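I'd like us to work through together how a protein chain folds, taking it slowly. We need material for that, and I hope you will provide a protein of your own picking. Go ahead whenever you are ready, and we will take it from there:
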Amino acid sequence: LKIDTDEYSGIVIDNYFKAMELGKNEAIERFPRLLELIERYPANGPHFKSKAKSFGPTWMYIRWIPQMVAILDNPIAEYVFPALYQIAKIYPKALYYAFSISYEHYMAVYDTLERQAQKRVSKIAAAVKSELMGRFILELRRLTNPEHLVVGLIDLLQDAINNGDIDKNFVKVNYHTFEQLLMNPNSNKDLGSIPKDFAILHSSFFLDLFGRNGSKLNKLNTRTMQRLKKYYQDHIKEKNKSSKPDNQLMSYSPFLAEFQGIELDEDLEIPGQYTGYRMPHPEEHVKVVNFDQRLLVLSSQRKPKRLRIHGSDERDHNFLVKGGEDLRLDQRIEQLFVTMNDILHGNPYCARHNVTIRTYKVVPMATDVGMIEWVNDTLPLQACLNSIEPRISAKARNGYVDLITRYHGDPRLTSSYNKMYNTERDRIVTHFHKCQSVIRADLLREYFLRLAASPEAFLHIRDDFVHSLSATSISGYILGIGDRHLENFLVDLNSGQLIPIDFGHAFGSATELLPVAELIPFRLTRQLTSVCEPIGIAGMLETPMIQILQTFQENKNTLLNSMDVFIKEPLLDWRKIAMREAKRQSRFIFSFLKAPESGGSTAELTSDNSGSGQSSGTRGASSSRNNTSTGSRNSSSTTLDQEIAWYPQQKLETARNKLSLENPGYTMAQSVLRNSLLKGFHSQIEKVAKGEPEYNIRARVGEKCASVQEQVRCLIDLATDPALLGRTYSGWSPTL
């Protein structure tokens, strides 16, 4: 039977729009598939355009705004534009932040865009224009510490040198923003005391290097960058290490400190109210009245700040403002968690036991700033353990580091960890258990006992913790989420639920890109498993994990469709973001040895086998797409288009295999082989990942598991194997 694909795709388009108008959630979920359909069968583009233009409930497009604004320079943009323009006219504030991010990209390559693409971008920009929202983004940038703004400038200028396609005017506009944030202390009335002090000390250097209003940027070269980097290292980074954080909003942004919404003609809505899951009513949205004068400055690398907003609903709304980071990755992961929760709600066991992944709002506003909903009544997992035994993290890490130093070399060098794969299993396991023996196994269990008002309350807390741990673990494995150190989990102080946060590494990047590859599928260390005692892992964790994984496998088409949309998003290069994260974290080399209570990513290590003397986390980390590394493949023989097509396809294939009973040990071993930084260690690491039949169930199973139960047991075996934990990066705190 020969199918007329054009006719068939036209029928699909018709019926999807009908189903959406009838409120069918599955049709709304799969709307991006229509975008793929008209890309594959462009003859139906005009038909899609007609349907999209006449479609009534425009709000149903809202959750897919990031994907739609990302294709305005794509050949199918002329068909999608009417739908996007409808949103711009009816719900401009729903579109503003997502469009602002894509607008940065379009301005960077504006001269290379076709004339029609330029017109589309300009028309949307005019429709959503808001001076107040633009000013709000600028003022949120002021909450980023000056030294981190300089790092952002260095990245931008380095990209401009590496990538000849970046528009020179775009560079000047961004430098002008930098000047607004940190320069001209005498004439700039918008500077708080912190940026003003910085400007007094350093603006003369930037003026000399780049000229007034960036007049010398046209002569930007490698020598200029060397001067800038040296000045940053000697005069900015080192000077700011000992400075105490200021918690006064006025010190950063007088505009936000003095803001009074009632005095303005335009309302500023509290971010995150356009979810796309129901029709929005902007007139009912909570508006910003003013901002609390005190900030809470967190101690992590980029010093993010909690900003308290006083809303028109007479309630306080807390957000974490993160500068110097692209939060789109976190936002997409949270969206995938929402899809996963929808799937879990259909499982009777999960519905009965309230098995869900705790989510929160993430609002990217630019590629270097965004807001995250503050989850009240929570503590980082590390803080919970420290409250029972102070400085336990430092104690655990120091013992572990001492053993690495004694037997394998400097723990700050990647080879010290990778050489451990040449060491026999018994020796590694003995060392690991020796490190664990000096630490109580039940610190988290003790914390929950103190949290509970009665024995019955403890049982409820334990159940909620176990179910959230199961959901977080299985979902994290499917999505390839790594870097799960103790600071990347929050504990709900009311329910005991575990909340995953900070997704700098997703889709296996922690295994494939970091110089010390993560082989652990999810965190299931002793402090977590001790909460299950005396029943144990088999009695408490296996059943919910089996139910969750089985439900995901039964709905894998829906899940893979959603993942496909996000992974293939044109302007969201997962690999590039992960490598940039590794690069930025590597600037804090050795910090885990100096800051006893901080968690850490493997990206903080120094590579001693690269031959170049540069930090291993920086390899291929340029944000220029033309410089994107291709892992184990030869980047010089790979075109840009091939790279863009290959990488997401390979990620989807890995996820599909996980949802098709593939042995986790085999999955992990295959991922390691794609890590080009591990040359010379591939075979040893692959062997450890697959395990040994004498000790590991995963080694007694073939490439494919016989059942979901067997796959879960292999996952637990992989996550709790002391032969792997004993070779894991110390900042991950494997002994806890």
